[in-house]
């Protein structure tokens, strides 16, 4: 999908206009969210906020799920923690879920997608259990994260981007950087 000519969406009246945009980078685990978010932050000067790290560091969870080897996210605590940061603007938020974040926070929502023949080995390299790999692969097949994004945010701010290679990642970062430039010109 070529988004280089995409316009930055107008901000609806109930969402505050920021000088610097907030971007959500989401997708199934293994699609390249963290690396892409870090590269966007470097290219644009925005601040990368990795939700998974915040959950662990600041205890924004309800305990550990041994079966899936992950923290049980406390969505209310996460939203309370992020609210002041998001009001400032200039954030690139990286998380595999998106439906609990307030719509007003984001000016752009990027959903990264990866073919399962590429995704499966990536998850194996992370030493995920077979059950966890299968759950994530099924999530990608069923487009769970994409549908969450489409159901949670205005359609004009949701971008679906392939993330299967370094080339894809470089193109995605360039398109998003160009979008950030246009956003800041309009501010």
From TrEMBL:
The keyword ATP-binding applies. The keyword Transport does not apply. Keywords: ATP-binding, Cytoplasm, Kinase, Nucleotide-binding, Nucleus, Ribosome biogenesis, rRNA processing, Transferase. GO terms for molecular function: AMP kinase activity; ATP binding; ATP hydrolysis activity. Broad-specificity nucleoside monophosphate (NMP) kinase that catalyzes the reversible transfer of the terminal phosphate group between nucleoside triphosphates and monophosphates. Has also ATPase activity. Involved in the late cytoplasmic maturation steps of the 40S ribosomal particles, specifically 18S rRNA maturation. While NMP activity is not required for ribosome maturation, ATPase activity is. Associates transiently with small ribosomal subunit protein uS11. ATP hydrolysis breaks the interaction with uS11. Belongs to the adenylate kinase family. AK6 subfamily. This is Adenylate kinase isoenzyme 6 homolog. It comes from Spizellomyces punctatus (strain DAOM BR117). The lineage of its organism: Eukaryota, Fungi, Fungi incertae sedis, Chytridiomycota, Chytridiomycota incertae sedis.
